[in-house]
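Box 3.1 A note on notation
Throughout this textbook, protein chains are presented in two layers. The first layer is the amino acid sequence; the second is a token string describing backbone geometry. Keep the layers aligned when reading.
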Amino acid sequence: MTFPYPVIALEEHFWAEAATDFYSSKSKQDPYSTTVLLRRCRDELIDLGEARLTSMKHNGIAIQVLSHAASFLALDAPTCQKINDELARAAAANLKHFAGFATIPMQDPEAACAELRRCVKELKFVGALIDNTCEGRFYDDPFFWPFFETAQELDVPVYLHPSYNEQTKPLLYGGNYPDPVAQTLSMHAWGWHVENGGHILRLFASSFFDKFPRLKLILGHMGELLPYQLDRIIRITEHQWPLAGVKPDRGLRQVWNENIWVTTSGMFALAPMATLLRQCKPERILMSIDYPFARNEWGLQFLEELRNSGMVDDSMLKDIAYGNAERLLKIRV
């Protein structure tokens, strides 16, 4: 029996020629040309046509919310505009199957706000996906806060996505093994997720969520390790942080319940899903594949396993597959 519900997948990537041109202007090659473990995905990243749509159809993906793949350079405003225009053209050609998250020039707050407004108001994007750092700078710095104020005003979610951090790779992950192994440890095998989850804690500690109580943030990869540590961290923030003068208006559990949504992207196993179901409200869990770094087939297989596991009822399964995304993004299958 085929999976009974359509799927909206929220973290599905592409790579634009404009980004490659930007890297060239800086005398660098883009990571999807030079990195041996990522180069295999390049053809699928640059395709926004028939091959992508065929894979979606065969695996029950009704809508991909497209976003630009992670970058280790901060893309400037003209490049972000070109990337967003390319995405808008692809979405317009496939209105039933593609939606868009904006690419944002985070190093330029004024341009970041303007581009988010343009993408939401004119291009009809459903939010933004931003790299976890801006060339190593985290967003607890108030320098970046005008962008989040704009997202809150527009009532669109911001997807905080792991990204390259050239500062941490040699310090934490270089070792007595080949560099490609160190690279995976610093990225999708471990480091990206630790850093991205830690970023949420940095934001919380800086009273960021007091400033933006209605902001909607999305985390991928089943919560970037936070669900497994959440209770311990909450206890520390409640009993130790006030001694250092840090006591946000709302506790971490309330912020987690009110400001954070979580997708499955690339995490297709029942054990972490069991933790996520215990730590998240059911309406806060959404399906993602992380295409093309993860395969659409893996996502479909995971949904079938979840369906047969007894961990969720049909109503919850339906919401995870597409219902929660419809409500958050204001789109319809």
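Residues 77-93 form the longest helix (17 residues). The domain at 7-329 is CATH 3.20.20.140 (TIM Barrel).
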